[in-house]
Fold these 2 entries.
Entry 1:
Amino acid sequence: MYRTADGEEIFIVDGHVHFWDGSPGNQKNRYAEGWVECFYNYHKNLSPAEYVWPLEQYQKYSESQMMKDLFDEGYVDVAIFQPTYLRDFFTNGWNTTEQDAVIKAKYPDKFILNSAWDPRDEDAGLAEFEDKVKRYNIKGVKLYTAEWKGDSRGYKLSDPWARKYFDKCVDLGVTNIHVHKGPTIWPFNKDAFDVGDVDDAATMYRDAGLNFIVEHCGLPRVEDFCWIAAQEPNVYGGLAVVMPFIHASPHYFAEVMAEMLWWLGPDRLLFSSDYALWSPKWIIDKFMAFEFPQDILDKRAVTLTLEDKKKILGLNAAKLYELEVPTKAGFQVAVPA
Amino acid sequence: MIQTAFVAVSEEAVLAALGTVTDPELDESLVELGFLDSVRIEDDGCVEVVLRLPTFWCAPNFAYLMALDARAVTLKVPGVHQVRVVLKDHMYSDEISTGISAGQRFDEVFPGQADGEDVGELRALFHGKAFGMRQEQLARFLLEAGLTADEVVGLRLEDVLDTSNASGLRLQVAGQARLLRGGAPLARTYLERRRRVGLDEHGSARLITNPDGQAIAANELSEYLQCGRRQRISMTFNAVMCKGLLETRYDVHGGR
């Protein structure tokens, strides 16, 4: 819970957190090393200096560290675990549903456990997915279309097998589809950051009740993402990666936020720290203090009120996941949209 | 019999040539982005160009295009006989370095990984985005300098009188020559991007058009520019991220 200077309480849902293992013992190959190095540079590049960890700590952090950073210091009430498997790079996976489930079992009210699927696993994966959904009461998945698998360098949401998995999500009531784009590279000769396949899937499954949360707001293709999101009411923007720019390049952050608010409005944006890429405390502190500079407002007539900030920081995610929001936080029980 | 006289390769000329190569996704010079790691000129006219990128995972198609262009422009420098391009610290370092230096096509470098056509379409797509972004910058500059929307959409190429003047852009507006302070670099860059997408170069052609060369109605200009604005936001945002990651990765400072 974040408390404003006036004593008002703001309910915080961190829409995207990890509990990963990138330690050398879990690295299979040079791709694993490249993966950790890349993540670490994101962390170092965009975090305030006092929040930068040593590489060793970043590769594998403790449960107590995470609990402190998210809940004791980071204002978070509920955090959503988004798995990323990467079994081709890491022996036990980078961050799997099973690993997250251990933590979830210890702190059932603090975490939402999301799972994942991969259309390239075909029938076997479908059965395994159903099993996981029932075992863990899963309401959302994180899809990582850039994942390498054998010789394959990625997949698209428009692949025929992906459709079977979406159908399964509908059957099982897994309504929140978080899609991460990039660093996708496949097919090699196309713009693989293209979000067109999200558009197809969102249109096709709108009436069936699936919501598509595009992580990182389609960066680096904001222009395409905004266009899709404006037309598809079941498309949301996940603000992981976008938010930390509030420190490193506040003007660009303002420019992107203005665009997001213009096209999606305050009801379809979700705060995420992408922990441990970044830590929620400083992002939330800066976001609460944030106001649009005049030159941005001159080009885009947008507003970002305290009520809007509350939605982005927690209430929108609470609706998607049907979370109970304490009434003191200025909202009653969240109802599904 | 070798008839050609020996020409010493100038490092300055090589760097100037490489300075014209842009990252397709960011539309900035790879030298200014810091992507040029080093250049080594050997006595026999062999040049080694070492490139580096912000991450291990940077898209191989863009990396390939930059390496390809770097080789092509360096080969044109007087005295250069052979160019070896090395891409370091990348998931496809070996494939790209070996393939480009041997002059291989994209589908030869990455057999079985392309879908249909070559990378030409990808390049054209990003040339179009760069065109939109640079046009938005120029058009907004013109509007801020006091031109009306009617005047902006009515401009012809021949109305651009001089873009090389350091004090500003010389432009003919409604029959009168005007000097617009600070606009020359914007106009130069835009005209270069406009040439790249292959629009009509005649003096009577319109300056500000959609990517197909179609005129824009004055009352639609504002809405039209929003599209270019989104492309600019993407490109600028990505450039900030890429420069930052490169600085972090190689511990370099400045350039931003």
Entry 2:
Amino acid sequence: MTATLAPARPAAAAGRARFAALAAREMRRFVLNPVFLAAAGLAAYELWSGQRGTVTEIDGPNTVAAVCFGGFGMLAAFWLTRSMRASEPVVGVTPTTLPVRTAALCAVAIVPFGCGCLALLAFLHSHPVGDPVYGAFSPPARIAVLVGQIVVPSLGGPLLGVALGRSVRFPGAPFVLFLLLSGWMILVTALTQARPDSAPVAVLRLFAPFALFTLHSDAGVTAWRGSPWFFLGWQLALCAIAVLVALLRGAEGPVRARIIRALGIAGAAAVIMLMLAGTGGFTHAVTT
Amino acid sequence: MTGPVLRAGAWPAVAGVTGVAVVVGGCAAAFPAAATMLFPVCFALLAAAAAFTLDEPASLVVDVTPTGPARRTGIRAVALLAPLAAGALVMLAAAIRGLALPWAAAGLALAGNVLLGFAAACVARTRTGEPGAVAGTAVVLVLMAPSLVPQVARWVRTFPAPGAGGPSSDTVWWIVLAVCAAAIAIPVSGRGLPRWMSRIP
């Protein structure tokens, strides 16, 4: 038994070391990408300039990290993924399989995720959880709202970029998707303003990787329908789907079957979380 | 000559991105409350579509043929009619639905957006055969900056929203049109770009 297992351990250790080296290299390439550097600089400037003025609302500063680390991170991750396409005939014959290389690319998302965590801390420094700008949400729900608006989009954007890079050939796909998502969020926010108490409209508003939960107006702060906790679950399910779709490319045999099964489970979880997010939380818009 | 040059264009990309822009513009026409925010997104997509008009996968062969860059660019410029017509159609639909916008200024913004995408592609085309993705991304980021960065929105307006403060978008677009005309003329005439623009990433 020992004699059978002994050779497998060094191979597994070597595989892990190879993956770590690959992930570190991809991370270095991602961090040095001009788009990501510009995004990080822009986010830092926006958060710094937000601390100087008087805080009257959060619908604006809370989108900065999602746009910079999520949106721009998606562009950078897409280019990073596609940059190896031309050298695929050479890289393809190395012992490292395509799913392992994809996993190393997905590991890159740790960087924007960390940046998102730092952005959350900076945001909480300038907009403490006790502020009335968060509306009628309880303090834990306020944290859930911010994690869903700042941290998880920073993780999901680059993962989506890797999935797009692996599955779409059109080089303009990331910015088209970025604009489409922006357009969708504008549209559903306008719909929510018109029908704040409608459950289907709440589901539509949350059917996105980013969603606003409050509206600031002369009447006060309106907290919209929807559960921030289940919305977090929906976002994490989307992240899992993005990783699995990316890994599916090049996967063969039992690994492919396992990924497809996991995709089914993640898809079902995403649908359930979305429904719970849309129907949970406040049953109608609450203005304070 | 015109037929083959036009046929070789990246029509799926131009038509696809223009189609997405029409969908977004259609939503702007259908939901007036979101129109002033959706129209800039629609126009940015049209600018990105314009950036793909100069894509030439066979550039290594085409660039050494006797047909000069001015003639090739001129023929490919015909493809700009697609995003321009789509933008005009969307504005017409919005006007028919009774949307109250300064249409002359919106038309200028549409022309400026499309020409900006084309100019970026012209500049990038001197260094790469398929400038669409790079030029499109750059143009989209520039055009969306006022929506994404509140500080920029205080200084520059790219869409003429009624009642909004700050400088007029017309001034911005007249300047952009003039700069784009120069940016298109320099590479097309065969002159080299400034040394600092030696490489497209």
